[in-house]
């Protein structure tokens, strides 16, 4: 699809400096701009590229002043970076504005769905499923029995939503996500064989939760595994049964949270972090990548290492650790001198 400079300026509440009829159909970096593409200039380090870019339209700040000739049409806005992000969001909405029910789709007779929904081909909608308005379910998605999906949620190709799961408003569930599979619950019998403990709970996602591709969130043994409002989970994360993650917490890829741990709100957790079971992590906690958490964590702590240390203590300790061979060499010399005295 094509947009003119005038149309884009209207979306962004900007003004056109150049050809209002200049049209674009793709996006580009400013240094790689070509005819028919749209780019932006926000970082002053890239200013020199605006004089050589072949992009048809460039979004700039209102205070930008050209010092040489330009071949690109400018759209002037208050904040070029925010405006470009706004435009990307608008573009995604237009691109993904699919509606209707494709064939073949299996929809249980007891399932209900709202207005302006999209149900992609080869999807399965189970018994007593409730789907709100403006929900987009892409092809090859499995929706189990008694699932509830609130308005404006998007579920991408190949996601699996097990029975009893509850998904809030405006959530994004990416490809390969599994919500509500059995938690890892086993108990040994008298012969040392592991017997499965039934997992009878569910998974609840509150509003505005984003789940990255390949992430799995297990149903609770009893009660709910709870992902609260605004949580953002990256790719390939494992969230075990009965975990709670607080509002607006973000977790990077390949992290794992063991059963019944509770994570507070506004936490930032790096990639490949491991959190042991039955741990309580406070609010506003920052955990560096590859950290192992085996104890409760108070509000506002910053941690690194495995097992985790206070971030400042870890860095001080690491200075000694990396110099440990030299330190031991000096220690051995001193020890020998003392032995000879």
From TrEMBL:
Entry coiled-coil feature ranges: none
Any one Pfam family match given in the protein's UniProt record, by short name: Hexapep
Keyword Ribonucleoprotein: no
Reaction(s) catalysed (UniProt annotation): a UDP-3-O-[(3R)-3-hydroxyacyl]-alpha-D-glucosamine + a (3R)-hydroxyacyl-[ACP] = a UDP-2-N,3-O-bis[(3R)-3-hydroxyacyl]-alpha-D-glucosamine + holo-[ACP] + H(+)
GO molecular function annotations of the record: N-acyltransferase activity; UDP-3-O-[(3R)-3-hydroxyacyl]-glucosamine N-acyltransferase activity
EC number: 2.3.1.191
Pathway(s) it belongs to: Bacterial outer membrane biogenesis; LPS lipid A biosynthesis
Catalytic residues identified in the record: 241
UniProt keywords, alphabetically: Acyltransferase, Lipid A biosynthesis, Lipid biosynthesis, Lipid metabolism, Repeat, Transferase
A Gene Ontology biological process term: lipid A biosynthetic process
UDP-3-O-[3-hydroxymyristoyl] glucosamine N-acyltransferase non-repeat region domain location: 22-89
The organism's place on the tree of life at top rank: Bacteria
SUPFAM superfamilies assigned to the protein according to its UniProt record, in alphabetical order: Trimeric LpxA-like enzymes (SSF51161)
InterPro entries for the chain: Hexapep, LpxD, Trimer_LpxA-like_sf, UDP_GlcNAc_AcTrfase_non-rep
GO cellular component, one term: membrane
Record's subunit section: Homotrimer.
Function: Catalyzes the N-acylation of UDP-3-O-acylglucosamine using 3-hydroxyacyl-ACP as the acyl donor. Is involved in the biosynthesis of lipid A, a phosphorylated glycolipid that anchors the lipopolysaccharide to the outer membrane of the cell.
PANTHER family: UDP-3-O-ACYLGLUCOSAMINE N-ACYLTRANSFERASE, UDP-3-O-ACYLGLUCOSAMINE N-ACYLTRANSFERASE 1, MITOCHONDRIAL-RELATED
Family, similarity comment: Belongs to the transferase hexapeptide repeat family. LpxD subfamily.
Alphabetical list of HAMAP family matching this protein: LpxD
The protein's name in its UniProt record: UDP-3-O-acylglucosamine N-acyltransferase
Source species: Aequorivita vitellina
Record lineage: Bacteria, Pseudomonadati, Bacteroidota, Flavobacteriia, Flavobacteriales
